[in-house]
Amino acid sequence: MRAIVKLMRKDLRKRSFRGTRFLMAAVSLTGLFIFLEDTSNLEAGYVRTGHRHYRHSHYRSIRLAAVHGRHDWYLSDRRPVSRGTIAPPAALDIQIRLDQAGFSPGEIDGNLGRNTRLALAAFQQARGLQPAATIDEATRQALSNSGASETLVSHKLTPDDVAGPFLDNIPRDLMKQATLPGLYYTSPIEKLGEKFHISPMLLKRLNPGTKFAAGEEIKVPNVSGTSGSEKEAATPAPPANGGGVTVVVSKKGSSLTVKTADGRVIFHAPVTSGSEHDPLPIGQWKVTGVSKNPTFHYNPTLFWDAKSRGGKADIKPGPNNPVGVVWIDISKEHYGIHGSPEPGNIGHTSSHGCVRLTNWDAMKVASLVKPGTPVFFVE
What we know:
10 helices; 27% helix
C-alpha cells in the first residue's frame, strides 16, 4: 500500500496522461482493499475452540484498543469521535454494564452484535430512556449507575477455577455422547469463559501469554461470579421464592424477559427459540419444575433431523450436555427452557422448539421462577 501511495505522488508530479490513468487505477484498487477489509467483518463464520463452534457473524468490528476500554472510536462505523460529541463506551464495556444491570448480551465477545443491541434497547425502554443508535449521555450514565465501578477486574485463579475433569473432545453424535462419563468442559479456558460470561477467544486476548494456571492473575469481566473487591450488580431485587413473576419469551425479539407483578423488568436475555420445523409453541404455559445438572433423555423420534430412529439414550449431566446445566420444565409436553453447550450460538441459530439460553442466563432464570410461574410464548 505504501508503494502505491508513493507511485501516486510521483505520477501526480509528472502530470502525465499515463500517470493520471495509473492514479485512477490505484485509487480504485485502494478502494477495493478498504471494501474487502470492511466486508470481511460482516461475513458469518465459525471459529472452533475446543469442541465448540463460536459463531461470529457480528455487524461491527472492534480493535484491540477498544477491548481494553479506550473510548476513542465510534463502534458503529469505526470513525474517530468528532469534537463536541459524547464518545460511546467500548463495546466490551457496554456488554459488561448490561450484564451487571440484568440485561444479558449473552456471551460477552467485545462486539456490538444483535444480542447486545437488543439488550441495550430493552435496557433503555426499562429505564424510560429514548432508544438511540448511539450511546447518548443519559444511557451512558444509566449504565454506569447500574453496576460496579469497574468493568474489568483482576482475578487470581484458584485451583478450583482450573480443575477438571476435562474432555479432549466431545462428539457431535448424541449416541456417541451417551457413552461419555459426563459432558464436562474441554479446557480450563472454556470453564472460565462460562464463569465470567465471556468468549474464550476474547479471554485469551485480554490475557496474552497467560497459561491459565492456578495462582495467576487474569483480567476478567466484573460480573456475578467474579471474586475480589468488586461489588455485585445493582439489579432490581426479585420477589422472594419466585412469587409474582412472569416469564415472556418473544419469538420475534429472540429474547426472554422476567417481569414482576407491577411490570418491572428484573431480567432480560437473548434466546434461541424454535425453527421452521419445530416452531415455538405460542401460548400461555406455566413452570412445572426445575432440574439442575439434568440427564438428557434422547429420543430420536422427537427430532425431525435425527439421522437414526434407533434406540433411546441417556446423556450424562455436565455443562456440555445438550440442555446445559439446567432444565426448566413447562406445562407444554416435551418443551422447556434450558441452558446450552454453545453460548456463542444463542440468538443466532435455531432449536427444536425449546427455549435455549447460555448456561449462566438459564441458571439466573431458574433462580427467579418456581412451579406455577406463568410463561408466555409470544410472537
